[in-house]
Amino acid sequence: MGRSPCCDKVGLKKGPWTPEEDQKLLAYIEENGHGSWRALPSKAGLERCGKSCRLRWTNYLRPDIKRGKFSLQEEQTIIQLHALLGNRWSSIATHLPKRTDNEIKNYWNTHLKKKLTKLGIDPVTHKSKNESIFSDGHSKSAANLSHMAQWESARLEAEARLVKESKIHTKHSLQHQLGIINSVFPSQSSSSASSSSNQVLHIKPDTIPSGSLDAMKAWLKSNEGNNGSDLESPTSSLSFCEKGIVKDEGEKEWKGYENSTNLEEYKDGMENSMAFPSTMHHELTMITWGSSDDNAHVSVADEAGFTNLLLNSSNSGDRSLSPESGGECNTCYGSGGEFCEDNKNYWNDILNLVNSSPSDSSVF
DNA sequence: AACGACGCCAACCGCTACTTT
DNA sequence: CAAAGTAGCGGTTGGCGTCGT
Q1: How far is the CA of A153 from the C1' of C14 (A)?
Q2: Which nucleotide is nearest to A8 (CA to C1')?
């Protein structure tokens, strides 16, 4: 397992790129594609190592890169995803179209970390430094984070495999998969598959055929005793949606927490992202396709593995995937039988997040 | 005006995971 | 199956610009 020696070679230029070098790299890639990065510098007439060329391209020269100030929405997304995924910048970047992992990482380190710290929030754990703030049950949800991260990590590995598997499939496969969905959800998908706008399938649990992703099944199975909806990871003993976590509050836009020093707003945002396992985000992504204005979205439904997941994910649960139903799940009834009002907020948040994300992400 | 401190960010470094031989 | 090669990721650094004294 050797490390690439290219950067150790003497005589290769380092440091900032000149406009001439940029031009050479850009021209070469536009004409030939990057192909092998290792071989690219000599072919393009650059005295750089391939690694340096790749970095320059992916972080700066790529045409689909947006530069400049991060919007509040982007900040929110970064914080939420960071709470969930930790320092997985590339994964986070897949949900921020046109932003690079490097840029997000820099922005986190130079801006967001400080803002959270200012608010008394540990940017690593996303917990309030003053534990008492969360002592009304919120600490539990915060404590779930590290556990969720572990679970997420395992899940990401599984998804990576699925993505790989799916890439083998051809366009024919895509049509085949869409055909399956059309046959399974004729009314829901008839327009979606051909629509150019983002669409969300409203899947009724009783229409979903069975299938398998072992870990997912195991997880779902482990929850059958709880009406199949108590969304825990296989190793967790904690409930993700409990009375203490979800607050009874009206629908709320994410506010510019950096301006308000309003810890509650930050907490609300985090709670909405923490109260459910990310697998549910995944389910949503899988049933969302189309293209946004500036993104040529390819449906994740064309990914065979994802499709299988889609077809299986809700197999054992009574959960409706319809956001219009408020995303109701049995979990969200407290011990007294009261309904968790915040479900709607949760679904809206996640839908917003997911709908604005590139659908080929391997994260959700 | 000069200097130091600080912030930002592009680029590098080293590691890991994946692929190829 | 092991070794070598390669790409990608995340942490870190260094240079430049800005601000304060």
Answers
A1: 33
A2: B13
Covered bases, chain C (protein CB within 7 Å): 3-12, 15
Give domain A12-59's CATH number out of 1.10.10.10, 2.40.50.140, 2.40.110.10, 1.10.10.60. 1.10.10.60
- Averaged pLDDT for residues A106-111: 86
Numbered ranges of CATH 1.10.10.60 in chain A: 12-59
CA-to-CA distance for A351 and A345, rounded, in angstroms?
10
Please tell me which residue lies nearest to nucleotide B6, judged from CA to C1': A110
* Residue from A135, A319, A290, A139 nearest A223 by CA: A319
Query: Residue A63: which pLDDT band, with cuts at 50, 70 and 90?
Result: confident
CB-neighbour burial class of residue A90 (10 A; exposed 0-12, middle 13-18, buried 19+)? middle
- Can you tell me the mean pLDDT for A251-275? 44
